[in-house]
Amino acid sequence: MGQSWNPRDGTPNLSGKVALVTGANSGIGLHTVKHLASKGAKVYYTTRSEAKARAAREEIRSLAPEIPENLLVWLQLDLGDIGSVLKATAWMRENESKLDILINNAGLATKDLETNEAGWETAMAVCHVGHFVLTNGLLPLLKNAAAVKDADVRVVTVSSSANHIFLPADYTLDFSSPAFLRGELPYEPWKYRYVQKRMFNINVLLYSMAKLANVLFAQELQRRFDQAKIPILSLSINPGAVKSDNATDYAGLGRGLFHDSIRRYCSEVWRKPEVYKGKYLEPFGEVKEPHRVAKDLNQVHGFWETTAKEVEKYLSRRYQASLLEW
């Protein structure tokens, strides 16, 4: 963590670009909104409530008063509620013609196993499933942006080093089963049972599974973009140790690891997109190996197909809706 990267110096002019950032009420999301808008992008920032949106807007304006007000647009979104996601994506498709930058940032960590109305584990529902449906619903706008000559369209999914730190390399995973969506773990590794439970106020195994899902999603999304010859870059990043809402969930020494400044991927990503397609990045823009399951293409494909199948079943039953064609 010795060096830092200043997004003000490493981000190009974004005038005319349209961006959307989830989980923008504080921390990583809020600062990402600020930096994108300060470079000229029109930024849709999502929060679950109007009160949080108002507070976020006031903080952004206090930090960067030079940002024109019309570049900050609130979009109500609760990623744990698929109905909210459908409503938000429908609104975007009706009111925007393109989307150049999608930052899937919102996350959640819980202490105990909790499930939502669909039966999905809460962290997995917010970190992965909600973003899966959101990205799908925004595909027409992303594709429109990518159809323009010399377009530079990005889908950045925020993960965490937890995906390979807390899940043992030989951890038994089966993404062909929907059990992973329900938070059903094969077993508790001894390090978690005897050490990590005492160190953290969250269930780091469930959180790690959700963050691993972010990596696999970004990787498979890129493969599908490439297969369809759609010039969009998808990648996942570990933003580094930052001060965010989830920082308060770490007990003891863990809290000392969090720095004040946001760490984003380095300017090299902007200049050499081919190097980073589908990759997992850690500070500062360095390609890293995530959990080894990401190398098992059968697992990665199973993960995608299982997610899509379970989402389709839920959409059909609850909303008489379906996913758009990827």
From TrEMBL:
GO terms for molecular function: oxidoreductase activity. The keyword Nucleotide-binding does not apply. It holds the Pfam family adh_short. The keyword Phosphoprotein does not apply. Keywords: NADP, Oxidoreductase. Belongs to the short-chain dehydrogenases/reductases (SDR) family. This is Uncharacterized protein. It comes from Fusarium falciforme. The lineage of its organism: Eukaryota, Fungi, Dikarya, Ascomycota, Pezizomycotina.
